[in-house]
Amino acid sequence: MKINVDEERCCGAGQCVMLAPEVFDQRDEDGIVMLLDAEPPAEQHGPVREAAEMCPAAAIRLSEGT
Ligand code: SF4
């Protein structure tokens, strides 16, 4: 799995950080998403998929595969 985040779309809602805090963080100054791990280990894939579905701005894109 490979993750891309679109900082232009992100509205700083923070769902992704609550669901997968090892993969996503938010900038202190404006709450915009920061990607901590673009290719997370398998145990993170479930929460990351959930985060991508829950993101109100559809700012999280996943490429499945390896
Ligand atoms: S859930 Fe989406 S909009 Fe909210 S902080 Fe994460 S990427 Fe940004």
From TrEMBL:
Report the residue ranges that make up the 4Fe-4S ferredoxin-type domain in this protein. Answer: 1-29
One family from Pfam that matches here is: Fer4_13
Cofactor (UniProt): [3Fe-4S] cluster
Listed PROSITE patterns: 4FE4S_FER_2 (PS51379)
Q: Mind listing the UniProt keywords for this protein, alphabetically?
A: 3Fe-4S, Electron transport, Iron, Iron-sulfur, Metal-binding, Transport
Question: Do you know which InterPro entries this protein is assigned to?
Answer: 3Fe4S_ferredoxin, 4Fe4S_Fe-S-bd, Fe-S_cluster_ET
Q: What does this protein do?
A: Ferredoxins are iron-sulfur proteins that transfer electrons in a wide variety of metabolic reactions.
From the Swiss-Prot or TrEMBL record, give the protein name: Ferredoxin
Look up and give the organism this protein is from: Streptomyces iconiensis
